[in-house]
Amino acid sequence: MTPWDAAVAQVDALFRDRVDRGVAPSNAWGVFDRTGLVASGGHGDRGDGQRPDADSVYRIASCTKSVTAATLLTLVSDGHLDLDAPVTAFVPAFGAVHLPTLDSPVPTVRMLLTMSAGFPTDDPWADRQESISDAELDDVLRGGLLFDSVPGTRFAYSNLGYALLGRVVAVVSGRPFTEAARDTVLRPLGLDHTVFSAAESPGPVVTGFRPHDGDWEPLPMTGPGAFSSIGGLFSTVRDLARWATHLASASSDTPEPGPVSPADRRLMQQAMRVVPSSVVPGSSRATAYGFGLFVEQDDRFGELVSHSGGYPGFSAHMRWSAQTGLGVVAFENATQAKVSAAAQQAHDLLLETARPTASPALAGAGTGPARRPGADPTIRATRAAQTAVTGLLADWRDDVADAICTPNVAMDVPYDRRRRAIAAAVAEVGADLTAAPVAEQSSTPSHLRWWLPGTCGRLRVEIRLAPSSTARVQTLTVVAEPAEG
């Protein structure tokens, strides 16, 4: 069994354990990469005596928000909508809302997309509003709103904001939001099992449950309405992995074509608003919100894109690496199951395992300078600099260093001091300067860190290129890392 196969088996065991422990009656999971779905599984009873699989239909709740954002961006791309237009241009009833300060701006479409319109976080309330009518939503607005902050100043997770975006899409497109999302985004991508009502689903729909008196109590499904744009979609592991693969491809060298341009898909995955640590307690990663997606920063793996979903009876999560496209989707059919915790654990495990020998589909993942669209010339320059620096370390000559490095390198630490420090570091760990690197890390295409083996430890070498096209090294660091014990 390869390390990759072993890791996938661990992922399956992780989700099986959750069903065995009674976290949820069932779950379904999938792993995808740039090629699409590469592994999947399911455990428990989906409600009809059958074990779920990649085609079993669960509610994906707030994972819907990425589809809402994508649908809206097609209207912007076609010139029908300005992201900085005030919401009152599309939802006149919002004009009755008293803003928190005299100088507060009316929330714009962009503020709604980035969860920065100033509204309080509203999960329990909003999850029960899906089926209300537009007129009932207007009544809520005319009755007034609370604000936790001045619009445009802070992040706060807001379903109300995405309900208003659904109305924006409906008004600008001239048809119900659910039809616009279906015809503009879902059907063109072949996401035929991704629908806004159980009745539309061509596959088996999993029953949602909540715990009660030591047992599971089934919950009714809600139907489409004014809040469908916050979390109304049903989907499958296969379909959601297809959607995530499509989004992730925008960061590859060959983005997939589709109804939403690669540029707009990349825009969705940009850090627009910092998410306070109180929103993601216990997380070790800095987190931000883009357009319908969270963006996490990881020191080893770069940007990780994700979104969770929670509805009465259901929990969902999708996440992927922007650099490699490797990702995980997972569903469970229990209220507050928080399948996101298991999905993140599974994803971290797979990212750690993804090496050239692990899976042919992931060859090269996690090694070398970080790959990003348009960065190939920079990557080639970084590799060339790595080769040049390797030669310099083995046989230091000041004139060669001058050709490889920018002038600040000698100014920051004079060459004679660098030579002595490098020699001492090499000697401390017995480094083999002619050996191939035993590991590499990169945070950007112009940055590379690698380790050379030694008899009693290893040597860490790190370079960063200056921005000029001469591609010279502006940072050169050589550090001994002695073996423990």
Query: Low-confidence runs (pLDDT<50, min 5 residues)?
Result: 355-366
State the separation between the terminal residues, measured CA to CA.
Answer: 32 Å
> Structural class per helix/strand content?
alpha+beta
According to DSSP, the number of beta strands is 16
Mean of all residue-level pLDDT scores: 93
Would you identify the CATH architecture of the largest domain? 3-Layer(aba) Sandwich
Coarse shape: globular
GO molecular function: hydrolase activity
Domain Beta-lactamase-related: 11-343
InterPro entries: AmpC-like, Beta-lactam-related, Beta-lactam/transpept-like
Subcellular location: Membrane
Q: What can you see in these coordinates?
A:
It is an enzyme of class 3 (hydrolase). Its EC number is 3.1.1.103. Its main location: membrane. It is found in: Membrane. Keywords: Hydrolase, Membrane. The chain has 485 residues and is of the alpha+beta class. It has 2 domains: 3-362, Beta-lactamase (3-Layer(aba) Sandwich), CATH 3.40.710.10; 376-482, Nuclear Transport Factor 2, Chain: A (Roll). Helices cover 33% and strands 19% of the residues. The protein has 15 helices and 16 strands. The protein has helices spanning 3-20, 64-77, 109-113, 123-126, 134-142, 159-173, 177-186, 228-231, 237-249, 262-268, 339-353, 376-394, 398-404, 407-412, 415-429; strands at 26-33, 36-44, 58-59, 209-212, 215-218, 234-235, 273-274, 286-289, 294-298, 302-311, 314-321, 327-332, 439-441, 447-454, 457-465, 473-482. The protein has an 8-stranded antiparallel sheet with strand order 2-1-12-11-10-9-8-7, sandwiched between helices. A 4-stranded antiparallel sheet has the order 13-14-15-16. Helix 1 runs antiparallel to helix 11 (339-353) and helix 2 (64-77) packs parallel to helix 6 (159-173). The longest helix is centred in the C-terminal third of the chain and has 19 residues, at 376-394. The chain is globular. The two termini are 32 Å apart.
